[in-house]
Amino acid sequence: MIEFLKQLTDPESIIHYGGFALLLFVVFAETGLLIGFFLPGDSLIFISGMICVSKPELLGVNIFVLIFSLTVAAVIGNMAGYWFGFKIGPPLFKRKDSLIFKRSYLIITQRFYNRNGGKTLILGRFLPIIRTFAPILAGVIKVDFKIFMMYNIFGALAWIGLLASIGYYLGSYEWVQKNIGYIVIGLVVITLIPLISTYFKEKKSPQNNKNHH
To answer: Fewest CB atoms less than 10 Å from the CB: which of 115, 121, 171, 183?
Structure first.
């Protein structure tokens, strides 16, 4: 089980062992299931774009099929998250913390949502944790479904299209292929900076312990 979890958090292992099908599932899970927040979405999409150039036989699809398929998986994932939040509603804020669910993640996402509105569903795509909880929160507060879908589709296209295209472009360079580990670490650090900033703003907020919803 531990080895399996290690593989699920390693982008290259996901592609090597699970291929295209597991790639689609991971993107769906990270954007639609509570358990998905620990999955390496950004680096996985980036590396899959690279592989379309460097090792196309691994995935068996071209870059256009890759972007389209991952976008559909991300859109459906957000729809699943929205449905979950819509059904559970505000009681989700009172749910006890567990190994998978942390109420603080939902609160951080809510504060990000308060500052950015519907754009959270676009900006949040590029931020770990927030991309998992943003559609759930949209369901909890019952955002109009048509508006939600507009942000959902645009956000998925921007997230998948940008990262996969950059990976595809850089994948032809030998230096990039040899230093993929460092590039992935850099990508993780870059995406964590705004998340950490949001977390500390939330901790310092005088209303943090007064009212979460």
So the answer is: 115
